[in-house]
Design a protein that fits this description.
Layout lengths: L3 H17 L4 E8 L3 E3 L4 E6 L6 E10 L7 E9 L5 E9 L16 E8 L5 E2 L5 E8 L12 E3 L1 E10 L1
């Protein structure tokens, strides 16, 4: 039978291990999708500004599987500040190598991609206290078709992450 001290130290070790694995993360949340992302499905995240002094890195996280058939990804993003001001961007990310191999990390069929949103070219500082709302929507098009891809297959989760710089 284990001693109380052994159980205590094992528990303490596990807590330290779990909390120290991702010390940079300030906010990290995912929303699941049914293996496809409809063009009208706008994913939304609400983030409290950690402070108005320090710089942060912001990422769009995406998990996809081999059903994803494109070499790139177009997204429409918006970041609404607490005062209502909104920044809207159209972004493109590379999702596959020239040979068609999906980019990202992961051992099996599912790949995880940590895509830069803000903070890579210049520091991102939350200029106001309060709640920021980040929204993202897929904007994929087939070549020569202006109406867009109705359901983007292979996307299983969308996330938003804020990290210390």
């Amino acid at each position: 039978m284990p001693r109380k001290a052994d159980v205590f130290f094992l528990g303490l070790f596990l807590i330290v291990l779990l909390t120290s694995c991702d010390s940079k993360a300030i906010y990290d949340e995912y929303q699941s999708l049914p293996n496809q992302w409809n063009k009208d499905n706008i994913i939304s995240f609400k983030v409290e500004a950690p402070d108005t002094i320090n710089a942060y890195n912001l990422y769009v996280n995406l998990r996809n599987n081999s059903d994803y058939k494109y070499s790139n990804l177009f997204l429409i993003t918006s970041l609404e500040y607490p005062n209502g001001r909104t920044l809207i961007d159209t972004l493109e990310y590379k999702m596959a190598a020239p040979d068609g191999t999906l980019l990202g990390t992961g051992f099996a069929d599912v790949k995880e991609n940590k895509l830069w949103y803000k903070g890579y070219k210049s520091p991102f500082v939350f200029k106001e206290t309060g709640t920021y709302t980040f929204q993202v929507q897929q904007a994929m098009r087939k070549f020569g078709n202006a109406t867009g891809v109705e359901d983007l297959d292979g996307v299983t989760e969308i996330g938003f992450r804020v990290e210390n710089k």
